């Protein structure tokens, strides 16, 4: 017998509250909501954070900091030791190989980090590399191809002629 096989006895289980089923139940008539008022109505009550018309806390506190979440770039991280684990015989590791093995989700950009050692020359292609990872790969005789993920276009100002 395991912990997930244990079940309570039927008489130990708490019965659910049945409201609006007569006065004898203790929750008949108004069903425990009291008489009249906003909370007695169907769909009644106030939204979370409502303070009765007082200026709510989230509006009383000042805004702080810089928020750039819309433009945040999230990288899928791959370490050198996991590259060698997933590709034991391969020396040329492309971005498609990493996505194909589902090491990183195809919607994410790939960054290679330096955890682990490189025992053989690897030719790795990714969006970004840590400085230590580049040093380890090149020291082992491999090459690094860093793909430019987001290329900002230069916008020329219109000339006043």
What can you see in these coordinates?
By secondary structure, this protein is α/β, with parallel strands linked by helices. It has a domain at 78-146: Ribosomal Protein L15, Chain: K, domain 2, CATH 3.100.10. Helices cover 16% and strands 14% of the residues. The chain has helices at 57-60, 80-86, 95-100, 131-139; strands spanning 75-79, 92-93, 109-113, 123-126, 128-129, 143-146. The strands form two sheets. The chain has a three-stranded parallel β-sheet. Strands 2-4-6 form a three-stranded parallel β-sheet. The protein is elongated and about 85 Å long. The mean pLDDT is 89.
Task: Spell out the key features of this protein.
161 residues, Ribosomal Protein L15, Chain: K, domain 2, alpha/beta, three-stranded parallel sheet, 4 helices, elongated, 14% strand
From the 3D coordinates, which CATH architecture of the domain at 78-146 would you assign?
Ribosomal Protein L15, Chain: K, domain 2
Annotated CATH topology of the domain at 78-146: Ribosomal Protein L15, Chain: K, domain 2
Q: Shape from CA axes?
A: elongated
- Number of separate strands: 6
How are helices and strands ordered from N to C? HEHEHEEEHE
What is the fold's blueprint, element by element?
Layout: H1 57-60, E1 75-79, H2 80-86, E2 92-93, H3 95-100, E3 109-113, E4 123-126, E5 128-129, H4 131-139, E6 143-146
Parallel strand pairs: 1-3, 2-4, 3-5, 4-6
Brief write-up:
This protein is of the alpha/beta class and 161 residues long. It has a domain at 78-146: Ribosomal Protein L15, Chain: K, domain 2, CATH 3.100.10. The chain is built from four helices and six strands; from the N terminus they run αβαβαβββαβ.
